[in-house]
Structures are given as structure tokens and as C-alpha cells.
Structure to design on (221 residues):
């Protein structure tokens, strides 16, 4: 917030193909990791600006995810939609070529019923579907495989909290210990996921983003 220097600096160095230098790069990478940790949910950003405390931010994101889960249970009282959402970090960490739905839900489930659950999950705007395409260009719809997809949490800050959903005390301790370093593994995975989301439409044979993206509510200026 209030940073009017970084973006012009990045534009200039990119245009002139100059290096930022190690110290500036480390500072910007830490800022990026901080953004990945906090995310863009208005409540989380407001909490960080008010308290400057990542534990408080994580508690706020935890409350948001609990609200998500309550809504998922209203959509599907059996808990299958909630299970699909909760399994996203595990699915992404396995580096599989697609979301392995059979490893999350009962393999004997009705295909039409599962398709309906996926449509409900997509309609909730809490996730992003990335469908496989062998030719991600102008004619992409002709080459999209809607049966092969990956699932991403719509907000990267919520993704980090979801990844540590079960073990709450250890999650808080982990954040306190590593938020000042460049070695936080889960944030590195988040960054890879973000880059994958941004760059996938540019790479042949990649996954491409389909559907409506949740707009960031807070613009860092």
C-alpha cells in the first residue's frame, strides 16, 4: 500500500533488460510471498492492515473457509462438494496431470451426479477450473478437453490456510517461524500455482483457464 516506486522500477528494468540486483530481488520476492500468504480477500487484507499480524490474518481466512464449508453443506448435505474443495491442496501437491476425482469421491458414484457437483462447485466462484487444451490459442474451444482439468482455490491466501486446515496450532507456529524467510515450501508451491495460472494460456499443450475469475477486491498501489 502506498508503494509508487516498485512498478515503475520493474517496468524500466524489464524494458532495458537490466538486473534488479540481489537485495532488491530478495525484497520483492518476500513481498510476493507475503501477498501469496495474505491473498486478496477484503477481510484478510483489512485484518493485516489493522493488526500487521499474520496470525490474525490466518484466523480471518480460517473463518472465511468455515463459511465456505457451511455453504457447501447447504448445496450438498452429503459433504461431497466440501470434500472436493478440501482436497485441492493435496491434488495439486501430487503433480498429477489432472484432478483425480476418483481418489476423492466414491468410485462407484453416479457420473451425472458428480458432474452436477462439479457444476455447483464452479458456480460458487470459490474455485478456478483449468481445462486441458492441446492448442491454447484463438481456436481453443475446439481443442479443449473438459474431462481433463485441474482445480485451484480462487484466492491464494485461502489456499495456504486450506493446506494447513486440520492442524491449526502447528499452522500458526509455522507461519510465525517462516514468514520472514524465503524457504517457506507451501508458499513456493503457491507461487508455482499462480505462475501456472498466469502462464498456462501461453504454452502449447498446457492447461488453460476457463470460467469466471474472482476479481481482486484490493488493489495494491
Amino acid at each position: 500500500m502506498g508503494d509508487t516506486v516498485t512498478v515503475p522500477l520493474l517496468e524500466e528494468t524489464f524494458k532495458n533488460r537490466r538486473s534488479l540486483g540481489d537485495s532488491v530481488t530478495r525484497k520483492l520476492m518476500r513481498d510476493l510471498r507475503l501477498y501469496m500468504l495474505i491473498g486478496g480477500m477484503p477481510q484478510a487484507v483489512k485484518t493485516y492492515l489493522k493488526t500487521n499480524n499474520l496470525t490474525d490474518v490466518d484466523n480471518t481466512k480460517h473463518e472465511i473457509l468455515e463459511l465456505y464449508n457451511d455453504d457447501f453443506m447447504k448445496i450438498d448435505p452429503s459433504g461431497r462438494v466440501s470434500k472436493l474443495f478440501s482436497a485441492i491442496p493435496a491434488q495439486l501437491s501430487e503433480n498429477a496431470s489432472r484432478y483425480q476425482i476418483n481418489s476423492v469421491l466414491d468410485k462407484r458414484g453416479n457420473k451425472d451426479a458428480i458432474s452436477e457437483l462439479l457444476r455447483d462447485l464452479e458456480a460458487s466462484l470459490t474455485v478456478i477450473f483449468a481445462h486441458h487444451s492441446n492448442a491454447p490459442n484463438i481456436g481453443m474451444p475446439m481443442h479443449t478437453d473438459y474431462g481433463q482439468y485441474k482445480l485451484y482455490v480462487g484466492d491464494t491466501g485461502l489456499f495456504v490456510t486450506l493446506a494447513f486446515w486440520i492442524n491449526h496450532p502447528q499452522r500458526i507456529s509455522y507461519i510465525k517461524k517462516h514468514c520472514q524467510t524465503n524457504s517457506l515450501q507451501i508458499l513456493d508451491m503457491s507461487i508455482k500455482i499462480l505462475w501456472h495460472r498466469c502462464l498456462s494460456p501461453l504454452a502449447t499443450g498446457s492447461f488453460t483457464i476457463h470460467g469466471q475469475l474472482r476479481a481482486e477486491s484490493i488493489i495494491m498501489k
In short: DSSP finds ten helices and three strands in the chain. Residues 54-75 form the longest helix (22 residues).
